[in-house]
């Protein structure tokens, strides 16, 4: 619940919404078969939805849990010795703990921290010997900060997410590769807030 919204909020609030924005990625890529290592930068659009629940724990504080799932076309490539190395994300998701503080009437500053997952497609060196495509689901941690404005029954918000995925080995046939992926995302969203 936010300051100035006593008539429509309760100690327990459920949230459901949609979000979209743009993301940037940085991948430390290593191909053992070719003996090559590169930093591959990418970018792309993000579109998805989120759901969560918040509990009021004080006059201006609330704690909650939120999950989201997003489609993305973020990708990047690098022209290596043996061809173009490409890294593409198809979706990402997260489950995060959230804390918020009312900074003004109907307006809150919030932060979040939790686990994240993303499906990543790695293609290296098209047309060369021992070059294949590998698809894997990476996992890691994510944190974010944002600003939310509450209206009667609905809300709008803007937030930034940083995500660091664990280093992952892609089992390419004859061409093993390792990817260490980090991403940045700027999202704008809106949704509905309702209590029991």
Question: What count of helical segments does DSSP give?
Answer: 0
Mean pLDDT: 86
Q: How are the strands of the largest sheet arranged?
A: 1-2-3-5-6-7-8-10
Largest sheet: 8 strands, antiparallel, barrel
Q: In whole angstroms, how far apart are the ends?
A: 13 Å
By helix and strand content, what is the structural category?
Answer: mainly beta
The total count of strands amounts to: 10
Which range does the strand content fall in?
Answer: over 45%
> Helix and strand string, N-terminal first?
EEEEEEEEEE
> How would you sum up the global shape?
elongated
Lay out the secondary structure.
Elements lengths: L11 E20 L4 E21 L4 E12 L2 E6 L2 E22 L2 E17 L9 E18 L3 E12 L2 E3 L6 E18 L2
Antiparallel strand pairs: 1-2, 1-10, 2-3, 3-5, 4-5, 5-6, 6-7, 7-8, 8-10, 9-10
Question: Can you describe what's shown?
Answer:
The protein is mostly beta strands and 196 residues long. Helices cover 0% and strands 76% of the residues. It has no helices and ten strands. The protein has strands at 12-31, 36-56, 61-72, 75-80, 83-104, 107-123, 133-150, 154-165, 168-170, 177-194. The protein has an eight-stranded antiparallel β-barrel. It is elongated. Residues 3-9 have low confidence and may be disordered.
Briefly characterize the structure.
The protein has 196 residues and is an all-beta fold.
Keywords:
mainly beta, disordered N terminus, 196 residues, eight-stranded antiparallel beta barrel
